[in-house]
Design goal:
The complex is a heterodimer. Chain A is 36% helix and 12% strand. Chain A is built from 15 helices and twelve strands. In chain A, helix 2 packs antiparallel against helix 10, helix 5 crosses helix 6 and helix 10 packs across helix 13. Chain B has one domain: OB fold (Dihydrolipoamide Acetyltransferase, E2P), CATH 2.40.50. Helices cover 22% and strands 33% of the residues of chain B. Chain B has four helices and nine strands. Chain B has a six-stranded antiparallel sheet with strand order 1-2-3-9-8-5. In chain B, strands 4-6-7 form a three-stranded antiparallel sheet. The radius of gyration of chain B is 14 Å and the shape is globular. The chains are: A alpha/beta, B alpha+beta. At the A-B interface, helix 15 of A face loops of B.
């Protein structure tokens, strides 16, 4: 017998649990062809359960679970270093056009000239935005872009007969992908300390470079949300020692139209198009990690590149080309084309002036939050920030036993996605907040008021925070167990 | 403070020698504080061999998963079930209730290759930037 579902637990039932034998979602027309015998029993399985539900039950199921989700289209999403900016819907429309969505990467180039033209232009825009000589759109994500850049650095040194360069230097504020990519490319990794102002320690760099230096990888602005005041000196030290300067462009949102890393002497910069150039992300992809290079690395770019040439009829045409000393392919075909279309559409919608407004507003928004929350949360590096502000919950931790994790979980109750926590690793109880340029002052003020309220709650009622979130379909999860013993599959009861 | 009767490794593990010749192994307070709240411990079962300075297992905190290295060679006698069930013990009581493994020693002389409490504190301050 049915009972009232006051907790609305019914909404959490999986589709298989909503199944009723014999129920159908569609009405099939009467058979109007001769019946055919089924293949022999040995070729068929009849033990695979299929959900039997009506169309309305099916639609409600997916609508309900979509509401359990959290995305930038639902609410504020200040996940630091991830640049969860709003993704304009016009980009999706462009990517969904038949000429973009329904082409096949094996089509002859002459039948997809428009798509190739878009890629050619995007290569140019990204090279121009970073002050570089050329670009590859092949890598599918930021970390693959890093690997691409490091493989090019290795190929560059080897092409000069310089086989002893095995060391890659990386500041301790870097994303974990940097040392992982360097190790994957066969290099030895050495971490450089950050000084008390949040800059990379130039003296430590000076003491670590030598003729075994392959590359120096630096994220600008750093994951502390700071522009490195020593940057020119760092680049100089590395170049003098014969190393390649790698720029991790995960935080390019802070620099667009302001600083070109190529002008500062960088050799490689990757850009996470899914962050800076509005490919929707957060659900695991697809991403795009375009790589831009200086003149000396051009011959080593991955294949294929899109080039413009004069055809036999004298008309310009776009072709797929292989650089002379290419490191080879970084994946199937030409990268995630849909992500490239969205990035192109975004850049064309904004134009030159609009692109520079992105970084200006992103930096102003972050500094507004920084100035308003200072005093309520610890600020380990108290100086003007770029596109993100890194606070520490250590004062709450020591005074009230409330951790960064508790603050993050409580934010969910207020409808805000948690910021990045416990990163960068060099900041105790880190809370890394990146508002991006797409948030209004009203949203920022609401967030600031919420963060202040949570700091008060931490003092008055720490248990409220320890047990948060309270207002979600699932409350505090055992995250370690969820990761170690995941329950991902429906099983017959 | 780090107890004076223990030996310490550069990887921030400690060893306590018992009168029956077995040792207890754990991580130092410095390690526990750097890791933050420990949420999961993955260490070998009784009977498994340990090799000095080789990977022993993993410890997961809210921040990251880190490798554990065995400060001595020997054989696991027992795991601290209380710490496995409640990893927060490692933070609350790193030198006592939060021990990780009990092991028999293959070569007691290895203990002399480890640091004393005083040497370990010097090591920590020379690491400085941490």
């Amino acid at each position: 017998m049915a009972t009232p579902d006051v907790t609305m637990d019914g909404r959490r039932k999986l589709l298989m649990d909503r199944s009723v034998p014999g129920r159908m979602g569609t009405t099939l027309p009467p058979l109007d062809v001769p019946a055919q015998p089924l293949p022999s029993k040995g070729l068929l399985r009849d033990d695979l359960p299929m959900p039997e539900v009506s169309e309305s039950e099916l639609v409600r199921y997916f609508s309900q679970i979509s509401q359990f989700n959290f995305s930038i289209d639902h609410n504020f999403y200040p996940l630091g270093s991830c640049t969860m900016k709003y993704n304009p819907k016009v980009n999706d429309e462009m990517a969904g056009m038949p000429g973009m969505a329904e082409i096949h990467p094996n089509q002859p180039p002459e039948t997809v000239q428009g798509a190739l033209k878009l890629m050619h232009r995007l290569q140019g825009y990204l090279a121009e935005a970073t002050g570089m000589a050329g670009a590859s759109l092949a890598p599918m994500a930021g970390a693959e872009g890093e690997l691409t850049g490091l493989l090019m650095a290795r190929a560059y040194h080897l092409s000069r007969g310089d086989a002893k360069r095995k060391k890659v230097l990386i500041p301790d504020s870097a994303h974990g992908t940097n040392p992982a990519s360097a190790a994957m490319a066969g290099f030895q990794v050495l971490a450089l300390p950050t000084d008390t102002n949040g800059n990379t320690d130039a003296e430590a760099l000076k003491a670590s470079v030598g003729d075994d230096l392959a590359a120096f990888m630096i994220t600008q602005p750093s994951t502390l949300g700071l522009f490195d005041a020593n940057l020119l000196e760092l680049v100089h030290i590395v170049r003098e020692a014969g190393g390649i300067v790698y720029g991790d462009g995960a935080n390019l949102n802070a620099l667009l139209g302001r600083v070109k890393l190529g002008d500062l002497g960088f050799d490689v910069v990757h850009s996470n198009l899914h962050k800076t150039f509005t490919q929707p992300h957060g659900g695991g992809g697809p991403g795009a990690g375009a790589v831009m290079v200086s003149r000396r690395l051009l011959p080593f770019l991955p294949t294929p590149l899109v080039e413009q040439r004069k055809g036999p009829d004298g008309k310009e045409q776009y072709v797929l080309a292989t650089p002379p000393k290419t490191i080879g392919k970084m994946g199937a075909f030409h990268g995630n084309f849909g992500a490239l279309v969205r990035a192109y559409s975004y850049i064309r919608t904004l134009g030159d002036a609009g692109v520079a407004e992105v970084s200006r507003d992103a930096v102003i928004n972050a500094n507004y939050i920084l100035s308003q929350l200072k005093g309520h949360y610890d600020l380990p590096y108290d100086r003007r920030c770029m596109h993100e502000a890194v606070f520490s919950a250590r004062n709450l931790r020591h005074k009230h036993g409330v951790s960064a994790l508790d603050v993050a979980k409580r934010l969910i109750d207020y409808g805000v996605h948690p910021p990045t926590m416990y990163f960068p690793l060099i900041v105790e109880e880190a809370l890394m907040i990146e508002p991006t340029e797409t948030e209004s002052k009203e949203t920022l003020d609401q967030f600031i008021a919420t963060m202040k309220a949570i700091a008060r709650e931490a003092a008055e009622n720490p248990k409220l925070l320890h047990d948060a979130p309270h207002n979600t379909p699932n409350t505090r999860l055992d995250e370690a167990r969820a990761a170690r013993q995941p329950d991902l599959r429906w099983r017959k009861a | 403070m780090n107890p004076p009767d223990l030996r310490y490794s550069k990887e921030h593990e400690w060893v306590r020698l018992a009168s029956d010749g077995t040792v207890l192994i754990g991580i130092t307070r410095f390690a526990a504080e750097s890791l933050g709240d420990v949420v999961f411990i993955d260490i070998p079962e009784a009977g498994r061999q340990l090799d000095q300075f080789k990977k022993l297992g993993e410890i997961e905190s809210v921040k990251a998963v880190s490798d554990l290295f065995s400060p001595v060679s020997g054989q696991v006698v027992e795991r601290n079930q209380a710490a496995l069930d409640n990893p927060q013990l490692v933070n609350d009581s790193p030198y006592d209730k939060g021990w990780l493994l009990k092991a028999s020693l293959r070569n007691q002389a290895e203990l002399d290759t480890l640091m004393t409490a005083q040497q370990y504190e010097q090591y920590l301050s020379s690491e400085g930037s941490h």
